[in-house]
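Subject: Sanity check before I submit

Could someone independently write out the structure tokens for this chain? I want to compare against mine line by line before I put it in a report. The sequence has 150 residues.
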Amino acid sequence: MAKAKPAKKATSGASHRVVGLTLADVSIHFLQQDDEKEPNAEFDYTIDIQTPSVAEDVIFFPCSLKVRKRYPEEEEDIASIGANYFCGVSGALKEDLENEALAKKYAQTTIWSAFSSLFAICTQQMGISFPALPPAPSRIEVANPENEDE
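---
Independent answer below. Compare away.
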């Protein structure tokens, strides 16, 4: 009886993986909280990335993540925790918009996950009342650093 050949695995044209993820800095802002207003607190979860640069087969981009807590009637945050990361992902694509989409995908998954761990440690050790982070941020913005002065 002849041996059956193993089935070939389908291969995709693009292979992406994080080649570097570095935490550059952390910012923490905390004011005295009003326990009576606490149930009315609002939360905002955001990521800002800069347009990725490409070198060889890798895209590089800085990424800022921030979780904010505020009362609706007040301008200033009650508490916020932010972090800046620098990320490199292999498998750069041909079009800038495709690389932007790739950076957004990694910011929303890999970097958000790293930030969630950092966030949990900060809030637990500081005793700040925040709910657990959602699986993804409310929004991701892409800024082009060359056009910021305009």
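---
OP: Matches mine. For the report I'm noting this point. Residues 8-12 have pLDDT under 50 and may be disordered.
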